[in-house]
Amino acid sequence: MAKVEDVAAQILERCGRMTTMKLQKLTFYCQAAYLAETGSPIFEEDFRAWVNGPVSPELFSKHRGKFFIYPGELTSEAGTLSADALTVIDGVCDELGDLTANALVEKTHGEQPWLDARQGCDPQSHSQEIISKESIKAYYRTHPVVESLLV
Which positions ≥6 away from 31 have C-beta within 8 Å? Predict the structure, then answer.
């Protein structure tokens, strides 16, 4: 199975340099779209409901201290992403890749998986609550990130 870093590396190859916050959100939306389409995750790592939206701690550890990240800074093993995963990544990049990091943060802040995981938290307090894959799958099946990509 692919890792979160494999998906993030592919996003960078496809979209080019971006802020680390934007990379986190696009990676989240790739996982969401894939879960909604297939019922299975692209990668096993979870996202946490941080103040600025969903964050993968494993991916965060790869870019900690950076504002921008560039293609080639993350490693990906060749062949770890299926053709379906690559199709979903391309679709998410086409649909959301032109949005700013702040626009993506606002988008996630209006969606139920992040809101549910943050329930009871002060808006500016830290949280390590996991955004469950089940809540992601259920929400994005009825609120697609992109129109159906896999036939």
Answer: 4, 7, 41, 42, 43, 47, 133, 136
